[in-house]
């Protein structure tokens, strides 16, 4: 039996999707979503799931509610999990109730996963706590929506009597009328107020003013929907509390070039620091499968003293090969394991294996030197086809025997992007992260030949990567070590100037 799960996607910051909401998405067969759901959340929709966008149709008008209800009923009646994804919280001015009515009447099973509402989260990201004991003892959330040609249906006198914080949604076009209504009902013109536009996203703006002045200030700033209007003493705290605007990468546009499956953590870290992140996976790692050379080596591990891995991808592909061969971790018992850095070591640890060696500096030549210092027997290298020669050169200098087995290749698959090229040339991109020389090559292929790259800064892991970027005229900064922590630190230092 199928069901419909109504899920709140939160106000914009993808990190504000709930754990239960993410679990619902992971099991979805069909996802029906609205306009205000952020692209990063849509990226969580499983590839197998069907997506139905009801945020707009051909004429750019939203799909009418009756049509959405009909879609939910039809999809929900099948034997599948339908996730109905809505901005903020589904039940707060989200028509969630209306959608459930029809399902209830037809006996279609449903569940609801509440979401973080923009009514509370947008003010919070702008430094406005919606309640505070010194200022108020209630919070009121009001819709400022009115039908074309009709007046606002709001009891302003009653709202004034509450002395609580007032939050208006869908109120941008009615802002002058809302403020006039409150003033006419007797609210003090000097009451602190604010508009928070695109709250919790990198485009967030807060316009603070007194109730009297807010409409003119908002008009001058050309405030657009979606925005929340907040009225009440708590708005005075924003100057002191606006933590989001003070994040170190706030306002910075950052391009992440890692392969898609590995971009997530880096992107998450940069976003948490306030950056606007664009993922352009410039390279793709493709396992060579079948890979007879690796299988032959794995079948005769007793020939080797050391097995060395140079990337987390390598560790995963090794694992996939063992599984294909119906083997498990026990075949690695007699061989010592070397990892190029902590990321690769973590990938091994994920399978219950501890790296015996991690070089002090996380690059190919230092891995080679560390192996040269410790190894006496044969070394098995499982790595990319175009792996750095610095590793094998170090082994050769130490007269160590080795087998260099290519287990995956790196492809530059990204289509050329004129949009990225223009953003880079016009100075709309501040930083580009490069985690390997191949990501630099992939980036160059994406922006195309002859692009002016002087306005970006490349944040690089490793000297080899930096050298590759410099050769193409990209000003660079090199992270202190080859970890994502160091890379983000380097981005923050660069942003400080
Ligand atoms: N269910 C949603 C609200 C839907 S009504 C929720 O709980 O958030 C749509 C209104 O929500 C918009 O007109 C705007 O007032 C508000 N809104 C949604 N996202 C917003 C955001 N990121 N920043 C500010 N306001 C937002």
Model description:
With 497 residues, the chain is of the alpha/beta class. The protein folds into 4 domains: 114 residues, Cobalt-precorrin-4 Transmethylase, domain 1 (3-Layer(aba) Sandwich); 125 residues, Methyltransferase, Cobalt-precorrin-4 Transmethylase, Domain 2; 113 residues, Rossmann fold; 127 residues, Rossmann fold (3-Layer(aba) Sandwich). The protein has 19 helices and 20 strands. A 5-stranded parallel sheet has the order 3-2-4-1-5, with helices on both faces. It starts with a strand and ends with a helix. The model has no long low-confidence stretch (mean pLDDT 93). It binds S-adenosyl-L-homocysteine. S-adenosyl-L-homocysteine binds next to α5 and β10. The site of S-adenosyl-L-homocysteine has 24 residues, from α5 and β10.
Blueprint (SSEs and pairs):
Blueprint (H helix, E strand, L loop, with lengths): L2 E6 L10 H8 L3 E4 L5 H4 L7 E4 L11 H12 L4 E6 L9 H10 L4 E4 L4 H8 L13 E5 L12 H7 L2 E5 L5 H10 L7 E6 L7 E6 L3 H7 L6 E5 L6 H4 L11 E4 L3 H13 L3 E4 L4 E4 L4 H8 L6 E4 L2 H13 L11 E4 L2 H8 L14 H11 L4 E6 L4 H9 L4 E10 L6 H8 L5 E4 L2 H11 L9 E4 L2 H9 L4 E3 L5 H13 L1
Parallel strand pairs: 1-4, 1-5, 2-3, 2-4, 6-7, 11-12, 11-18, 14-15, 14-16, 16-17, 18-19, 19-20
Antiparallel strand pairs: 7-10, 8-9, 8-10, 13-17
S-adenosyl-L-homocysteine binds next to helix 5 and strand 10.
InterPro entries: 4pyrrol_Mease, 4pyrrol_Methylase_sf, 4pyrrol_syn_uPrphyn_synt_sf, 4pyrrol_synth_uPrphyn_synth, 4pyrrole_Mease_sub1, 4pyrrole_Mease_sub2, CobA/CysG_C, Siro_Cobalamin_biosynth
Enzyme class: transferase
Protein name: uroporphyrinogen-III C-methyltransferase
């Amino acid at each position: 039996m199928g069901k419909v799960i109504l899920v709140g996607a939160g106000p914009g910051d993808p990190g504000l999707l709930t754990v239960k909401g993410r679990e619902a998405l992971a099991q979805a067969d069909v996802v029906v979503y609205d306009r205000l759901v952020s692209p990063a959340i849509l990226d969580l929709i499983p590839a197998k799931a069907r997506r139905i966008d009801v945020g707009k149709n051909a004429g750019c008008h939203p799909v009418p509610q009756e049509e959405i209800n009909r879609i939910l009923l039809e999809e929900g009646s099948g034997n599948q999990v339908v996730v109905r994804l809505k901005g903020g919280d589904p039940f707060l001015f989200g028509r969630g109730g209306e959608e459930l009515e029809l399902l209830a009447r037809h006996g279609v099973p449903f569940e609801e996963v509440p979401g973080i509402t923009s009514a509370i989260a947008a003010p919070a990201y702008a430094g406005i706590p919606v309640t505070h004991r010194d200022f108020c003892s209630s919070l009121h959330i009001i819709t400022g929506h009115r039908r074309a040609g009709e007046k606002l249906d709001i009891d302003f006198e009653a709202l004034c009597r509450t002395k609580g914080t007032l939050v208006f949604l869908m109120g941008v076009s009615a802002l002058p009328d809302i403020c006039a209504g409150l003033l006419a009902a007797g609210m003090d013109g000097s009451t602190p107020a604010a508009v928070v536009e695109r709250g919790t996203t990198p485009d967030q703006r807060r316009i603070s003013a007194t109730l009297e002045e807010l409409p003119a200030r908002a008009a001058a700033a050309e405030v657009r929907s979606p925005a929340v209007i907040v009225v009440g003493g708590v708005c005075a705290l924003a100057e002191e509390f606006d933590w989001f605007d003070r994040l170190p990468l706030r306002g910075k546009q950052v391009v992440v070039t890692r392969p898609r499956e590995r971009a997530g953590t880096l992107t998450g870290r940069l976003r948490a620091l306030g950056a606007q992140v664009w993922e352009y996976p410039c390279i793709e790692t493709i396992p060579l499968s079948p890979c007879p050379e690796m299988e032959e080596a794995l079948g005769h591990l007793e020939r080797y003293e050391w097995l060395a891995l140079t990337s987390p991808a390598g560790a995963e592909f090794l694992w996939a090969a063992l599984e294909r061969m119906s083997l498990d971790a026990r075949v690695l018992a007699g061989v010592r394991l070397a990892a190029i850095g902590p990321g690769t070591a973590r990938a091994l640890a994920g399978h219950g294996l501890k790296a015996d060696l991690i070089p002090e500096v996380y690059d190919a030549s230092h891995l080679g030197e560390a192996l040269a210092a410790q190894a006496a027997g044969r070394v098995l290298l499982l790595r990319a086809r175009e792996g750095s020669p610095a590793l094998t050169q170090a082994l050769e200098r130490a007269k160590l025997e080795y087998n260099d087995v290519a287990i995956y290749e790196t492809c530059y698959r990204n289509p050329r992007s004129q949009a990225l090229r223009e953003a880079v040339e016009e100075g709309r991109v501040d930083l580009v992260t490069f985690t390997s020389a191949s990501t630099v090559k992939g980036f160059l292929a994406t922006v195309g030949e002859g692009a002016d790259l002087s306005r970006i800064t490349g944040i690089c892991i490793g000297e080899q990567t930096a050298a590759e970027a410099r050769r193409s005229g990209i000003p660079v900064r090199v992270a202190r070590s080859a970890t994502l922590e160091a890379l983000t630190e380097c981005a923050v230092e660069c942003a400080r100037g």
